[in-house]
Amino acid sequence: MTDRTDYGTAFITGAGSGIGRASALRLAAEGAAVAVSDLRREAAETVAAEIRAGGGRAVAVALDVAQAEAIAGAVAEAEAQLGPIDILVNSAGLILVEPLLDFSAATWAKVMAVNVTGTFLVSQQIARGMAARGYGRIINISSVSGLRAGVGRAAYGTSKAAILGLTRQFALELGARGITTNAIAPGVIETPMTLNAYSEETWDRVLAMIPARRRGAPEDIAEAVAYLASPAASYVNGEVLTVDGGYMASGMTQTGQLQA
Ligand SMILES: NC(=O)c1ccc[n+]([C@@H]2O[C@H](COP(=O)([O-])OP(=O)(O)OC[C@H]3O[C@@H](n4cnc5c(N)ncnc54)[C@H](O)[C@@H]3O)[C@@H](O)[C@H]2O)c1
């Protein structure tokens, strides 16, 4: 157990949209000061302004997590304005799909640079301060694509599985320093990422595989982020929380009709 009751300060990557944005708003509602970080500065500014308009504390920080040399500066900028970071949510992510046998090395490298190396380097940088202070919450946004294969997702799926490996590695090596590291595996969530990629027909096919029979909302994931980021979750470490409306739980006969 920890004596802490407050959330402290959060740094969220990819917070200009979708799951990162919803997590920023949710943590701000818990009283966290939030560094809203995104590749797109304007999107980050908009979300930070939204939090401030609601009475919260937030600053926008421009950061491309694939630019290794920019990470330390962005973290220092956030800490100079909001104080030491207690919570990190790694939500910045990129999906690029190509057929397996024609998958290009360039696409592979791009996806890995953002989803895996970016998650690792931002976590490492922020964890140094957390370890020195003896407290931290790291939450990595993986995916059900890291647990099951999907067509065209050689890089994306592998990157999301790698994030689960990273989560366990951080959980082990930093667990004794008061830091917990957990992952969330969202199912299909309605965000610009999926709205840009899915046709109505794809949505229909996907919904048929989800027992909850609805699209996930970014807020569904933000609720899980809020739990894992809370001081109360101090004994949850190295876990993967699937938030998918039951997708991973279901198997071959999932239409609800009794069939032989
Ligand atoms: N939407 C889903 O169904 C779903 C499912 C499982 C996992 N995820 C994961 O959730 C995370 C967020 O996805 P989303 O659906 O909210 O997408 P989104 O496109 O709405 O938001 C992603 C944000 O990340 C930012 N970003 C992209 N590359 C970046 C980089 N190099 N550095 C910093 N920021 C960068 C974008 O500017 C954008 O604001 C991703 O890691 C994604 O893989 C999404």
| Ligands | nicotinamide-adenine-dinucleotide
Written as H for each helix and E for each strand, in order along the chain, the element string is: EHEHEHEHEHEHHHE
Which structural class fits the helix and strand makeup? alpha/beta
Number of helices: 8
What does the largest sheet look like?
7 strands, parallel
Strand content: 5-15%
Instruction: Look up the CATH topology.
Output: Rossmann fold
List the helices and strands and how they pair.
Elements: E1 9-13, H1 18-29, E2 33-38, H2 41-53, E3 58-62, H3 68-82, E4 87-90, H4 105-133, E5 136-141, H5 154-174, E6 179-186, H6 192-197, H7 200-207, H8 218-229, E7 240-243
Parallel strand pairs: 1-2, 1-4, 2-3, 4-5, 5-6, 6-7
The structure holds nicotinamide-adenine-dinucleotide (NAD).
Describe the structure.
- Helices cover 45% and strands 15% of the residues.
- It has 260 residues and is an alpha/beta fold.
- The protein has a single domain, classed as Rossmann fold, CATH 3.40.50.
- The protein starts with 8 loop residues before the first strand and ends in a 17-residue tail after the last strand.
- The model has no long low-confidence stretch (mean pLDDT 96).
- Residues 13-14, 16-20, 38-40, 43, 63-66, 91-95, 114, 118, 141, 143, 186, 188-189, 191-194 line the site of nicotinamide-adenine-dinucleotide.
